[in-house]
Design brief:
The complex is a heterodimer of chains A (about 625) and B (about 160). Chain A is built from 19 helices and ten strands. Chain A has about 625 residues and is α+β, with helices and mostly antiparallel strands. Chain B has one domain. Classes of the chains: A alpha+beta (about 625), B mainly alpha (about 160). Chains A and B meet through helix 12, helix 13 and helix 19 of A and helix 5, helix 6 and helix 7 of B.
Chain lengths: ~625, ~160
């Protein structure tokens, strides 16, 4: 009884058990309407099965008639109450059936992501999510309600003689009090409805094991029934298993399978593009036969990307990049050829992925992301090597510098040598600035047109008008931004001058430098807002925004540079302390190792002094 | 690398979620970030994310380089080497792309933004490597100059 309706898989099964002669359980498995119900009838002289079947039919009829006009939760509650009223009426009409009733647990699946569960009595609903089972219902027994009110402990409830006596059922009264639970279904969730004939004769662990086994719902339903029968089968047993649609394969899975295969199938194309883009002419592979160069570099990267996509073992992109860059740097190679080689490989890879994307857009997208990430990994590996080299050169530089200082102090070098060097235009300029802060590099190429200058001036005028009269620092920054933005050279020089002026008009007091950066940020916000107020075409506004954004960036950079230079001595001290801490750590580790060795020797000595039968038992 | 407004807007909407995910995993991003208290770490990561938004909106590689230069310098002053900074910047970009892929799954904007952020991360990594290589070339030049001076001093 499996169905693919609504993307769900559902199965139900029922069994009379090993003791009873009549099956008083009933169920509804209606995939068309998404209605699934288990009922467990009670009452003497065949009344139990009548009760459960009467309620079943009434509930089904009610849902069929009203499901398009009622909200799901209200529909299920009203249907169960209608079932209760119908059973109650039937019970009144015959003395044999007087007092009959039934439990019910019902699930109405609204859509593959939402369900409503309702119950009366001790039939249960369970939810299996991510391998864990959770009970969605609470038995309506007298003992459970006494526990809820705090009148009984859980231990006392277990031993209570009335632990199976229901406090609620359908048919005892015309209207039943129904408990409802909304369930947000996740892909792969399983809901299980059952009568007490299952959980009364099977352990919770065994139920969880079968429900989470991953077997198809019809197998699970059958196995659960078998489980209850093997546990004694003392009661009728019914179960329904509802499985929410399985999740789609994740993007990772797609990349590992289809992506890796598609990439590998295009390797010849990758090599061809790399050849066309001039890989064999790169200085790094100079001296190699073109085929050999392609094999060693392009094919190796192709394989490395394949391993990364498939997450299999083998040389990955990180190792590939380290091998190529490490070997090149060892030969004192420059960055530019390596950069060019990586560019050829990256553009070839992207061209191949674009071609794959033409045939399968989704796969193309996933591969684009995955291959781009692989290439970033290559940059990371190369970056690590570059940083290592930088550190090594730095260390050498410090040594040479220190040696020179000593030589100068010893009077071995005549400082007039400087003038000789200056004469040749080759004078050494020691710039003890913070690394990476160089104010001499242009950051934008194109010049500034007169229209753009006019638009920038207008924007700054508006921005000034929007600035509080007391915000002198912000005004100063706005003026600087104007100057920097219209500076045709686009280099850091105007930004550095402006930064010195701004830095100089305020004192760095207890509040630190944050007010300065707050003002810079305010100026940025005001200018961004003011750009929209100038009357100019959108393209011009975009240019103004870009120019002012660039100016702001340069000003912040230059200001930061000044601040960093001011704190440079502290940074140096920090580095020294860190170096000393490292040395101390090494010394401590060495001492620890020495102590451990001594302890081992000591233990061996003591152990050897023991009688033979006790040796090897000395504890430390 | 210029982009349409919808992507910049989509990125701006995602920023709080990206920030939160980065804050949750900051200790694995960068040891120095892991040691910072949350407000300080929030400020640092926000600065990178904000700049990323500006770069997405303007595509101005010059400003991007300038930002990275400043960022490298600031971290250098905190005794953080360029390799650690590169790893952090890549992790930030990668997380932003991951959040875009998760949060905007199935939409065209989501796919485009994910791809754009991945490529921006690649651009960032390359720009950092360029800056480190330039710094390296400058230091090697200085070292050569100093070595030459020392040789001249010895010979005189």
């Amino acid at each position: 009884m499996t169905t693919a309706q609504q993307g769900l898989r559902v199965a139900g099964d029922t069994n009379v058990g090993k003791v009873r002669t009549t099956n008083e359980d009933s169920m509804i498995v209606d995939p068309v309407r998404g209605l699934y119900v288990v009922l467990d009838g009670m009452g003497g002289a065949n009344a139990g099965d009548v009760a459960s079947q009467t309620a079943r039919d009434a509930i089904k009829e009610f849902v069929m008639q009203r499901r398009l006009t009622m909200e799901p939760r209200a529909l299920l509650e009203a249907a169960i109450q209608h079932g209760s009223a119908t059973v109650f009426e039937a019970a009144q009409q015959s003395r044999e059936r007087h007092g009959m009733g039934t439990t019910v647990v019902a699930c109405y699946v609204v859509d593959p992501k939402r369900a409503v569960v309702a119950h009366v009595g001790d039939s249960r609903a369970y939810l299996l999510r991510n391998g864990r089972v959770q009970m969605l219902t609470r038995d309506h027994t007298i003992v459970e309600e006494l526990v809820d009110r705090g009148l009984l402990s859980a231990e006392e409830a277990e031993r209570h003689p009335y632990k199976n006596v229901l406090s609620r059922n359908l048919g005892a009264k015309p209207d039943a009090r129904v408990d409802l639970v909304d369930v947000e279904l996740k892909p792969g969730d399983r809901l299980m409805l059952c009568s007490d004939g299952l959980y009364g004769y099977a352990s919770a662990e065994a139920i969880q094991y079968l429900l989470g086994s991953g077997d198809a719902p019809e197998h699970v339903a059958r196995d659960l029934i078998d489980l209850a029968l093997r546990g004694g089968g003392g009661d009728n047993v019914t179960t329904i298993v509802i499985e929410a649609p399985q999740p789609l394969p994740s993007s990772t899975q797609v990349v590992r399978t289809s992506g890796a295969i598609a990439w590998w199938q295009h390797r010849a194309r990758f090599l061809q593009i790399a050849r066309d883009r001039g890989l064999p002419k790169n200085p790094i592979v100079r001296g190699l036969d073109p085929e050999e160069a392609l094999e060693l570099v392009a094919n190796s990267l192709c394989q490395a990307i394949f391993h990364d996509l498939e997450k299999s073992t083998g040389v990955n992109v990180w190792t590939f990049a380290q091998n190529i860059a490490g070997g090149w740097f060892e030969r004192s190679g420059e960055w530019a050829p390596l950069r060019a080689l990586m560019d050829i490989l990256a553009t070839s890879a992207r061209a191949v992925v674009d071609e794959i994307g033409v045939a399968d857009a989704n796969l193309g997208f996933l591969l684009s992301v995955a291959v781009s990430r692989a290439l970033v990994v290559a940059e990371l590996a190369i970056g690590g090597l570059l940083a290592d080299r930088l550190n090594r050169v730095d260390a050498e530089l410090i040594k040479v510098h220190a040696a020179m200082q000593e030589t100068i102090l010893d009077g071995q070098i005549d400082t007039s040598q400087d003038s000789a060097l200056e004469d040749t235009g080759d004078r050494f300029i020691d710039r003890p600035t913070v690394p990476f802060m160089r104010p001499d590099r242009p950051v934008s190429g194109p010049g500034v047109s007169s229209e753009l200058i006019a638009a920038i001036e207008k924007t700054i005028t508006i921005a000034r008008g929007r600035t509080s009269p007391r915000a002198e620092l912000v005004k100063q920054i706005l003026a600087s931004l104007e100057t920097i933005a219209i500076d045709a050279t686009g280099n850091f020089a105007s930004a550095v001058i402006a930064a010195r002026e701004i830095y100089g008009i305020r004192s760095v007091d207890d509040t630190g430098i944050m007010p300065l950066f707050d003002a810079l940020d305010q100026a940025r916000i005001i200018t961004a807002a003011s750009v929209h107020q100038i009357s100019a075409p959108d393209a011009m506004r975009a240019k103004v925004l870009r120019a002012l954004s660039g100016a702001h960036q340069r000003l912040v950079g230059a200001t930061t540079g000044l601040v960093l230079e001011a704190v440079a001595p502290y940074s140096d001290r920090l580095r020294e302390v860190q170096a000393k801490t490292g040395e101390l750590r090494d010394a401590v580790a060495k001492s620890e190792r020495k102590r451990a060795d001594l302890e081992r020797k000591w233990a061996t000595t003591i152990d050897n002094s023991q009688p033979w039968e006790k040796r090897g038992t000395t504890e430390w | 690398m210029s982009t349409e407004d919808p992507l910049a807007r989509a990125y701006a909407n995602l920023r709080p979620k990206v920030l939160q995910r980065l804050l949750d995993m900051r200790a694995t991003l960068d040891p120095s970030l892991g040691r910072l208290d949350e407000p300080t770490a929030r400020a640092q990561i926000s600065a990178v994310l904000e700049h990323l938004g500006n770069f997405l909106a303007t595509g101005d590689l010059g400003s991007h380089r300038a930002f990275l230069q400043t960022f490298l310098a600031m971290r250098a002053a905190e005794a953080q080497g360029p390799a650690a900074v590169l790893a952090m910047l890549v992790a930030v970009g990668d997380t932003a792309a991951q959040v875009a892929q998760d949060e905007l799954a199935g939409s065209t904007d989501g796919a485009e933004l994910t791809l754009l952020l991945t490529r921006v991360t690649a651009t960032t990594a390359r720009a950092v490597n360029d800056l480190v290589a330039e710094e390296l070339a400058r230091r090697v030049g200085q070292w050569n100059e100093l070595a030459m001076r020392e040789r001249k001093g010895q010979s005189s």
